[in-house]
Amino acid sequence: MRFDELELSDDVLDALDAMRFGDCTPIQEKAIPLIFQRRDLIAVAQTGTGKTAAYLLPVIDMLADEPEPTDTVSCIVMSPTRELAQQIDRQLEGFSYYLPISSVAIYGGTDGKEFARQQNGLKRGADVVIATPGRLIAHLQLGGIDLSKVQYFILDEADRMLDMGFFDDIMQIVKHLPKERQTLMFSATMPPKIQQLAKAILNDPAEIKIAVSRPTEKIAQSACVVYENQKTRVLKHLFRTVSDKRVIVFAASKLKVKDLAKSLRNSGWKVGEMHSDLEQDRRDEVMHDFRAARLDILVATDILARGIDIDDISLVVNYDVPREAEDYVHRIGRTARAGAGGSAVTLIGEEDMGRFGDLERFLGYEVKKLDLPEDIGETPVYDPTRRTRGRGGKPKSPRTKGRSNGGQRSKDNKPAENQRDSSRQRTPRKPSADHHNGEKKAQAPKPRQSAKAGDNNEKNTAVTTENNTSGDTKKRKRNYRPGKRQSSNRKQGNNGSKKPSASQQATSHVSTSSSTSPTVNS
């Protein structure tokens, strides 16, 4: 379907034409008509499918038709990170080029002067406010901001916001909003936390779910079945045999990222790390060094899996198996971009076999398992049906001694002599008299920390990604250009102002002449 088949105004279509938009993506085709019907909406589609345009286009079109309010905010778009907020702001500037739409971008990391400018912009009112949760709450706590006239409340990358610990922040923001509003939630996945949030803030929502696309065939996927303590050695083996330049390694936690980056640096590789504990200035510096090839390897959490485009990545390594198939697609999708090829290797630990088996069933094929050299040591036998039974009851994987016997049990199903019997139970330790008294022997009592301090520390960790950011606050007012589309008016443009810039077109470009299906970054 083309955009001119939807109920979009001529002014919006003019902007899309100038940005070379032609056909709708599936999420845009399904979401835009429902938003025009004033329905609450929950839409699930992976990153890069055009979710940003799916909600911005109808919302700014409806705002342009309404009387201009004074000193109020009409629409709030929530973003988990500064990078995504900036991307949304650029796209809004292009889409609203011919519309009388004002906007303010609110994200952290700025000095006191910039904070005051953001505060002033919120108090004066804007059609659209694009904000990260922590920074918006900081402004609300100072008072003087009216959100009682908000008509549209939009959450972009909602699953990522919840992963970063912003559930309570979102619910606190909702308390400032009117009950009569349209709420739109866009997410790449649908975990239970998202369903819980949807029940709390949405009213009889329509649901859209776009099937997750499979990885491109240009990505050479493979996996290594290893024990946890072998992963770092296997990773270094991959650097020596596959590539140690333009590499991204994804780990499951910030602690793993820090430890792994330190180990690789000590081995002589030029390594950077990316996680939410880093200050924004440091994050920007790491990304700049990696793009400039001053760093060869980047170790990161899933903060780097979405919303950040880095070209010419030769190798992506999943140090841990992702929890969701969508996360796997997002991670390995960092390579083989712009028609180039690339490799993706996943390290499968004992506890990850069942999860990786689910992933293979989603992909519809078995991922190639790589043979490892003898000096790595014995490795587990891959069992895609293996499930963890919980603490004290998890089954043991048979081991591979070299590659000769594959670590298989004998026909009578008895374990080999050099293998531990997993059914053997430990003798419970008898409690001492000190334990009966509720005390630990020879240990001085520790001073009790206040719950408030602990909460603040945990909060600071969760909000680092979006609060330690920097950027300019913009407020734009468009001169309304009534009438039907005319090429002469579009060429002259907004009283001599510039057309949508090349960076906006690059951010949200869809080529009508391309043979591939068009997508829009969101």
What do these coordinates show?
The structure is a single chain. With 522 residues, the chain is an alpha/beta fold. The protein contains 18 helices and 16 strands. The strands form three sheets. Strands 3-4-2-5-6-1-7 form a seven-stranded parallel sheet, sandwiched between helices. Strands 10-11-9-12-13-8-14 form a seven-stranded parallel sheet, sandwiched between helices. Helix 5 links the parallel strand 3 and strand 4. Helix 2 runs parallel beside helix 3 and helix 3 packs across helix 4. The radius of gyration is 26 Å and the shape is globular. The C terminus is likely disordered.
Question: Characteristics of this structure?
Answer:
single chain, 522 residues, alpha/beta, seven-stranded parallel sheet, 18 helices, 35% helix, globular, disordered C terminus
Number of helices: 18
Q: Specify the biggest β-sheet.
A: 7 strands, parallel
Oligomer: single chain
> How large is the share of residues in beta strands?
5-15%
Are there runs of 5+ residues with pLDDT below 50, and where? 390-498, 505-522
Helix content: 25-40%
Radius of gyration: 26 Å
Envelope shape: globular
The total of beta strands comes to: 16
- Name the strands of the widest sheet in spatial order: 3-4-2-5-6-1-7
Q: For the terminal residues, how far apart are their CA atoms?
A: 19 Å
Structural class: alpha/beta
Integer average pLDDT: 77
